[in-house]
Amino acid sequence: MHNSARNDSLTWKRVLRNSDGSTQSGVCLPDMESRDEAMLGTVLDSVGCGILLFGLNGDLWAVNDRFAEILGHEAGRLRGLNHFEQFVASLSPQFAHGDVVAARWRQRFQNGEASWDELKLANPEKKTLERYARPVLNRYKQPLGWLEIYRDISIQRQLESRLFHNERLVALGQMVCGVVHELNNPLTSILGYAQIVHGRMRGSPWESEARHILEEAKRARHIARNLLLFTSGSEAERASVSLNEIVERTVAIRAPELRLENILTEVDLDERLPSTMADAVQIQQALLNLITNAEQAIQQFRGSGHIWIQTRQGSADRVVLEVADDGPGVPPEVVLHIFDPFFTTKPAGVGTGLGLSILYGIVHQHGGEVTVENRSAGGAVFRIELPSTTRIENAGDKPYVVGMSAPELPTESSRVQGARILVVEDEPTVASLIADVLGDEGHRVDTILDSRQGLSMARGGQYDLVICDLRMPHLDGRSFYRELVREQNSMAQRLIFVTGDTLAPRTVDFLQRCSLRYLAKPFLAEELKEIVRLALDVAMDARPRATGTTGGESQRDYEQSPQHERKHYER
Fold first, then answer.
1. Which class does domain 35-152 fall in?
2. Per-residue pLDDT tens over the stretch 422-439
3. Does residue 235 have a pLDDT over 70?
4. DSSP of 169-215, one letter per residue?
5. Per CATH, the architecture of 240-394 is what?
6. pTM listed for this prediction
């Protein structure tokens, strides 16, 4: 049927004929050497789309190699299918919801109307296909046959999905930044007073309870900072950590509660698993999100079940963490949106739609990948892949995870005792906390909630140090500082800023340009003591050594102190 110059990838099965059986003008019989046939064959073999061409009664006229390639078949096998129904019966099982695809395929062929749709190919690999179908018409607009054009748009849909996901993450980031900033003030007070109470409870029957409160406050502090890192895209603090250790500690926290809910947790850890460079708390948060997601799925499905957690070596430079459950699994239409912010299939009050989105962001910031698929035995399995490292861990250098206490920072007593310190802070509890901590250190502390009154007090120059919140109503920290600079007041260089907004570009730029110390909320009492000690020691070094020198007499000398001595302070 084909001459030697033709590519066998195009196969003609029938001649184009009119409805009365006569050959349509301009169409050549298959046994004729036809320039038109050669041109059409070359075109169909050259396009990047899969093409099917049928007669009105369903006989196959043409199929090109690209169609076979898209569906993962040998071209010769498809040329052995002679009729539309054979194509439907043979190929529809490859698609997700194959019965629905077959019924819709037949209906559109019978209706003979132009249409466009998307198909989800499930086997031999997952793809998204775009199908355009239309009748073949003669010059009189009469139907001669049926044309279907298939295009693989998997990459396009993946890019669109990622773009949409990133846009949602930006919106989520803006919201989270605002929420975390508002939480930083009460969290600062909780953390600070928890430290004070724990210190006073040493040796008492309530010491253990006070320690638990302090540890949970520290954990909340770390989570709040990680949320800001996550939403800002900044690098978290990473170290070489053991994924197995993170899993063991996380399961130890959640397994008892899960047992009470009739959910059994089984762990299978690869003892030879290499370490990974990661922020242990962030990875722990990601794992907790997966466990919570599996728990909620099981509870909605049948109330009891199993969760399996496994670690293993992936490729040569990847480690794998899998969390599987025997819940209902993930419907195909949900898979594409499961990591989108605020997307949830759970009832109101059960899920927020943020857990898996935060998980997605954490994993990708670590250079990893997270995927989900359904288990053959029922349920779903989430798979996290992270870069591995051969870096040897210090046996005593353990990352901070839930259940471990962060070591308290050693502080040195300042050479300046009884300093006069002004605290300008619009949050009463935070102002009181700073005053209580520094008062215990022997300093005299005045607090003022109104920044305008605070500026008037600072102008008097009766203070050795001013601690000022950066974000306040009426007069914010920037304006406070600029007013002192404009007046050439030496107190402009005796400022310590307190802020919960250290990741915002505008804040970072200001703090770098003014070259003053700053403390990030929520902070530990030891961090507050340390930064005040450093600031007061610098002020003392800048003063004249003559006996009887007062703070006011040393202002000019302090202004001339080396700029490099005024360092940033943030932990």
1. alpha beta
2. 999 988 989 999 999 999
3. no
4. HHHHHHHHHHHHHHHHHHHHHHHHHHHHHHHHTTTSTTHHHHHHHHH
5. 2-Layer Sandwich (3.30)
6. 0.45
